[in-house]
């Protein structure tokens, strides 16, 4: 890509000339007092540096009548002071190098931003100005400032970048992570050696999911860093099981009332994990109030802005166990020795060094230099710096300090490539190179976009948005036996890896808050298998109730959203976690089946016994007088009725289903036909008005057999048509019981089934009516009475059978049918034959013609 193509991505080509322009010489005059830099050094090329050497400011009052006083920076930060010294170290190394920028030197001017945008803007303007000169070289040539190293806070970097943008001065941030700064249209001159927050929030979202922290709170600063980080986190957890319990913002203008409101939200919330997107300076006073409110049990998740803040770790032991992602550490040889050379004795007039001593030793080496601060005990300024001063001397694994170092080297390598451009191969007009005697910042910016170098074994370059490779260390705050806090690396996040493989954690090395074995932060406890989640109306998705699965449905996973329905032949177990085969039920040879079978066999045997008695006493009057042949037919049919009940017991098959209904209907039709014949004979015998009537010749034995045969034949024909058209067949009934499969016989044709029962009922009703008419006829042994009683019992049993049969579920349907068969059979047996057996066996004296004949005896045998 040519320079013109590259530059057109960010600027109109006409804005910047490709050859050195000519300028008029306007007079430049100072409009106010110059702010002195914290550190400065002369060189061929000047770099700017802005660092938050203080973490808060006191704004002066304004009456809009007089010029406002300068802001007062408070809260010296030794950690940020170390960052500034890292820039000095890098510049001095480069100036001594014979390989990088030989015969050229770098200079610098470093200013304090006090961690606020307004002061950062004052600092960048101070960097741009030449102190004490009425006519600045900016008015006639390339800017004396070629590049800027800074800032730490994203809000400050936004202000600084926009201030530098009209001058096309590139800026490399060492700690500004706001994803908004990747917008090349708004910040075309911005670079950074720290990953942007899009990657950090992805890492934090992965961390929350890894430890199943589904209910978390967020506390953030009221700056662009906090705003954009929250937006990114919400985006990353949108389709996950993580929910935000609350989102609270530390006020930019610190107010205790507002902070107390935030702390009360944290106190009452059930969220035990709190993610904090804030700089060290904003978070420090918040934690001071947190300590006073006695809130416990919080697992802190730190953003990279404060995850390695020694000052916080040393001041607030309750932060032990904090986890968070820190930018990758690097090696800076010679940094420790360089830091040890800084003391008030060597820099007697530098107020920053004096404040360092005040922060480390609580003493003042030169009280006269700080009249606005409280008087402190005097000290020599030659005190030895100890390892306990970790906020300043933490050089074992520098992170932000390392980023400052990389930023300076990125500028140096880009400058080296610019100065040693081969004529005719340059990126500018007609393949020209930059004029080494008058370098413009926008020319350096082009080389920054294409720079690639190695430092401490790490490859450094920038993508098209000015960002660097996303990579983090997972840090855990632990406290050693000596009471000194340590930042232990327990994992890493590499944004270049495939999805799902970016985060690697050594969980065994983590020490959690309160030395817990596990941190749990959920709005609702997980639903075990067998339950499903029911979302609470108006609450986040993480808040739900656990409802047991309905019968026939299961969930075999934790936190199931719904229960799965079991297949047709399966049912859920008692826990609702597994589909098991339904119980197959039919009237088997269980307790009920055996009981009915015994009753049926007893009934058949009892009937056979009565038949035996009748056969043995067939010549006696009581047997002969009641038509012994019909009695034998009735007893035989009753035996078959009892035995046909056995066909209903057992697993239904095609043959058993057809046999049970046809056998039952035909045997009962045969039995009722015999009783009907007997009833007709009795009625005819007792209603003959005079001797010699011919009515009996029409009801002789042959005619009786024809009546029985014809009546039975009708039922046989109905059954035959039934079996041919739609025979009964076995089915699996899954509707009666959801948890059981009922094996039963379908009648096939409902019409045929009810025709069979209806025909039996018709015969029984006809018998009942005829017997009822003959019930009061004379005779000492009028059998019509007993036939009436037997038919009454028979009809009562089968009438009550119909609703019981329809309403009985499962195998009880068959049991009801068997019961009706047995009950009606026993009713016929006892009503018709018990009185005769009583006379035959116990009252033989009454088994005589004289007794049975009475006055109107007529032999019907």
TrEMBL record:
The alphabetized UniProt keywords are: Cell membrane, G-protein coupled receptor, Glycoprotein, Membrane, Receptor, Signal, Transducer, Transmembrane, Transmembrane helix
Q: Does the keyword Membrane apply?
A: yes
TM annotation in the entry = 591-615, 630-650, 662-686, 706-731, 751-774, 786-806, 818-841
Query: Domain of life of the organism in this record?
Result: Eukaryota
InterPro entries annotated for this entry?
Answer: ANF_lig-bd_rcpt, GPCR_3, GPCR_3_9-Cys_dom, GPCR_3_9-Cys_sf, GPCR_3_C, GPCR_3_Ca_sens_rcpt-rel, GPCR_3_CS, GPCR_3_vmron_rcpt_2
Q: Report the membrane topology from the UniProt record.
A: Multi-pass membrane protein
Give the subcellular location. Cell membrane
User: What are the recorded GO MF terms, alphabetically?
Assistant: G protein-coupled receptor activity
A GO CC term attached to the entry: plasma membrane
List residues of the G-protein coupled receptors family 3 profile domain.
592-856
Q: Which segment of the chain is annotated as a signal peptide?
A: 1-21
Q: Does the keyword Acetylation apply?
A: no
Classification via CDD domains: 7tmC_V2R_pheromone (cd15283), PBP1_CaSR (cd06364)
PANTHER family with a match to the protein in the record: CALCIUM-SENSING RECEPTOR-RELATED (PTHR24061), EXTRACELLULAR CALCIUM-SENSING RECEPTOR ISOFORM X2-RELATED (PTHR24061:SF504)
Recorded family membership = Belongs to the G-protein coupled receptor 3 family.
Output this protein's name: G-protein coupled receptors family 3 profile domain-containing protein
């Amino acid at each position: 890509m040519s320079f013109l193509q590259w530059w057109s991505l960010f600027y109109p080509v006409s804005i910047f000339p490709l050859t050195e322009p000519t300028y008029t010489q306007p007079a430049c005059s100072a409009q106010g007092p110059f702010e002195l830099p914290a550190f400065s050094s002369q060189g061929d090329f000047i770099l700017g540096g802005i660092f938050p050497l203080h973490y808060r400011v006191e704004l002066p009052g304004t009456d809009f009548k007089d010029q406002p006083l300068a802001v007062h920076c408070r809260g010296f930060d030794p950690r940020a002071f170390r960052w500034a010294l890292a820039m000095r170290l890098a510049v001095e190394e480069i100036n001594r190098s014979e390989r990088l920028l030989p015969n050229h030197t770098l200079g610098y001017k470093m200013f304090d931003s006090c961690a606020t945008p307004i002061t950062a803007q004052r600092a960048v303007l101070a960097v741009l100005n030449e102190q004490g000169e009425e006519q600045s070289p900016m008015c006639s040539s390339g800017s004396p400032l070629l590049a800027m190293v800074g800032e730490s806070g994203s809000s400050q970097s936004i202000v600084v970048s926009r201030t530098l943008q009209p001058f096309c001065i590139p800026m490399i941030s060492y700690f500004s992570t706001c994803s908004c700064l990747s917008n090349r249209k708004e910040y075309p001159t911005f670079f950074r050696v720290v990953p942007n927050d899009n990657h950090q929030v992805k890492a934090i979202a992965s961390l929350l999911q890894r430890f199943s922290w589904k209910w978390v709170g967020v506390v953030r600063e009221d700056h662009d860093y906090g705003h954009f980080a929250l937006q990114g986190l919400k985006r990353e957890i949108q389709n996950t099981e993580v929910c935000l319990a609350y989102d609270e913002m530390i006020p930019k203008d610190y107010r205790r009332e507002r902070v107390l409101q935030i702390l009360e939200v944290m106190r009452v919330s059930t969220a035990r994990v709190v993610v904090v997107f804030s700089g060290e300076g904003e978070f420090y006073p918040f934690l001071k109030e947190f300590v006073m409110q006695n809130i416990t049990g919080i697992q802190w998740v730190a953003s990279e802005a404060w995850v390695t803040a020694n000052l916080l770790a040393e001041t607030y032991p309750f932060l032990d166990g904090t986890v968070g992602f820190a930018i990758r550490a690097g090696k800076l040889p010679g940094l420790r020795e360089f830091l040890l050379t800084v003391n008030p004795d060597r820099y007697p007039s530098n107020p920053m060094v004096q404040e360092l001593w005040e922060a480390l030793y609580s003493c003042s080496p030169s009280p006269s230099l700080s009249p606005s601060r409280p008087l402190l005990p005097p000290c020599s300024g030659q005190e030895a710096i100890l390892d306990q001063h970790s906020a300043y001397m933490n050089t074992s694994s520098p992170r932000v300090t390392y980023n400052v170092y990389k930023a300076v080297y990125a500028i140096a390598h880009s400058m080296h490539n610019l100065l040693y451009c081969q004529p005719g191969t340059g990126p500018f007009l007609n393949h020209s190179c930059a004029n080494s005697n008058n370098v413009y910042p926008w020319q350096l910016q082009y080389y920054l976009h294409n720079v690639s170098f190695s430092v401490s074994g790490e490859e450094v370059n920038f993508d098209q948005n000015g960002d660097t490779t996303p990579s983090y260390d997972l840090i855990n705050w632990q406290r050693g036996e000596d009471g000194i806090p340590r930042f232990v690396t327990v994992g890493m996040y590499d944004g270049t890896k495939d999805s799902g493989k970016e985060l690697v954690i050594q969980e065994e090395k983590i020490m959690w808050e309160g030395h817990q074995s596990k941190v749990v932060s959920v709005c609702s406890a997980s639903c075990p298998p067998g339950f499903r989640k029911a979302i609470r109306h108006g609450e986040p998705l993480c808040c739900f109730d656990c409802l047991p699965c309905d019968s026939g449905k299961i969930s075999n996973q934790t936190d199931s959203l719904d229960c799965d329905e079991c297949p047709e032949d399966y049912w859920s177990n008692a826990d609702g976690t597994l589909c098991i085969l339904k119980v197959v039920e039919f009237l088997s040879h269980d307790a009920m089946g055996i009981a009915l079978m015994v009753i049926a066999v007893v009934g058949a045997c009892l009937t056979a016994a009565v038949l035996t008695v009748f056969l043995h006493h067939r010549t006696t009057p009581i047997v002969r007088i009641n038509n012994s042949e019909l009695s034998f037919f009735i007893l035989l049919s009753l035996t078959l009725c009892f035995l046909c009940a056995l066909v209903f017991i057992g697993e239904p098959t095609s043959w058993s289903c057809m046999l049970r209904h046809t056998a039952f209907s035909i045997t009962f039709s045969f039995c009722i036909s015999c009783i009907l014949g007997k009833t007709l004979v009795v009625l005819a015998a007792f209603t003959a008005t005079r001797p010699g009537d011919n009515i009996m010749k029409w009801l002789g034995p042959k005619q009786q057999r024809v009546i029985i045969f014809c009546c039975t034949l009708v039922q046989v024909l109905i059954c035959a048509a039934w079996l041919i058209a739609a025979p009964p067949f076995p089915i699996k009934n899954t509707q009666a019981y959801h948890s059981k499969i009922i094996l039963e016989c379908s009648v096939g044709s409902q019409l045929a089934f009810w025709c069979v029962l209806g025909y039996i009922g018709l015969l029984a009703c006809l018998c009942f009516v005829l017997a009822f008419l003959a019930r009061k006829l004379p005779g000492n042994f009028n059998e019509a009475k007993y036939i009436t009683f037997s038919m009454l019992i028979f009809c009562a049993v089968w009438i009550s059978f119909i609703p019981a049969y329809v309403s009985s579920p499962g195998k009880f349907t068959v049991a009801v049918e068997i019961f009706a068969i047995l009950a009606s059979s026993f009713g016929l047996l006892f009503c018709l034959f018990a009185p005769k057996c009583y006379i035959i066996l116990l009252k033989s004296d009454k088994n005589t013609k004289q007794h049975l004949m009475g006055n109107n005896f007529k032999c019907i045998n």
